[in-house]
Amino acid sequence: MCYNCYEKIAGKIKLHRRGNLYYTTYYDRDIKKLIASFKLKRRRYIGAFIGKLVGEVLRSIVEEEDIDIVIPVPASSARKRERGYNQVEDILEHAGIAYKRMKRIRDTQPMHKLKDEKLRRENVLGSFQGTLSTEGRNILIVDDIVTTGSTIKEVIRSLERDGSSKKVVVFAFALANTALASDLAF
Q1: How many percent of the chain have pLDDT more than 90?
Q2: Which residues are within 8 A (CB) of 176 and not within 5 positions of it... i.e. 6 or more apart?
Q3: Where does the Phosphoribosyltransferase domain lie (predicted)?
Q4: Quick check: 28 and 8 in contact, CB under 8 A?
Q5: Could you give all domains of the chain from N- to C-terminal order, each with its CATH number?
Q6: b/e 62-71 (16+ beta carbons within 10 angstroms → b)
Q7: Over 80: is that where the pLDDT of 168 sits?
Q8: pLDDT of 64-112, one tens digit each?
Q9: Per-residue three-class SS string for the chain
Q10: What H or E segment, with its residue span, contains residue 131?
Q11: Structure confidence at residue 4 as a pLDDT band (50, 70, 90)
């Protein structure tokens, strides 16, 4: 990544909060290109870049919210095979944040291809299996982008089937400008 690109992206990073959702930037044209390169063009070095940018922020959230378990949103097995990695796990590893995996039990359509909120919700319905003991624990769910919140809500639903956590907090690298505050009540 060139110095100018690094400076442009790094200059956008600032911690924001909406309820129990933390994010560091908006999903604008530059961030969209960055994440597309990371996920679709398999430029894995971008995970190291993002991880280093958000590492301190993530550590402060873990401490401030007294987090017991960090859970990255699982990638579908098809996309993990295509890429060779789960982009959210990659970011967490480069940020130096320990995490526990949950299972994605069903492959889904790529969310960036689905513009309608109802289709997004239906796409991820029943896709995750909470295999972790979360009862009475504070959970941080991490994703790269939050658009409508459908994926996060489904992850939370699957965790609740296995026992109610004490508190659930969400962190996303980027928040889509289309996300409405009312949609993001986790």
Answers
A1: 46
A2: 26, 27, 145, 146, 147, 148
A3: 107-165
A4: no
A5: 3-179 (3.40.50)
A6: beebebbbbb
A7: yes
A8: 999 999 999 988 777 788 888 899 999 999 999 999 988 776 666 655 5
A9: CCHHHHHHHHCCCCCEEECCEEEEEECCHHHHHHHHHHHCCCCCHHHHHHHHHHHHHHHHHHHHCCCCEEEECCCCHHHHHHHCCCHHHHHHHHHCCCCCCCEECCCCCCHHHCCCHHHHHHHHCCCEECCCCCCCCEEEEEEEEECCCHHHHHHHHHHHHCCCCCEEEEEEEEECCCCCHHHHCC
A10: none
A11: confident
Query: pLDDT, tens digit, for every residue of 41-63?
Result: 888 999 999 999 999 999 999 99
Sign, Cα dihedral of 159, 52, 98, 137: negative
Q: 126 is written with which tokens?
A: 């029943």
pLDDT of residue 153: 87
Count the helices and strands in the chain (H runs, E runs).
7, 7
Residue found under tokens 């007294």: 66
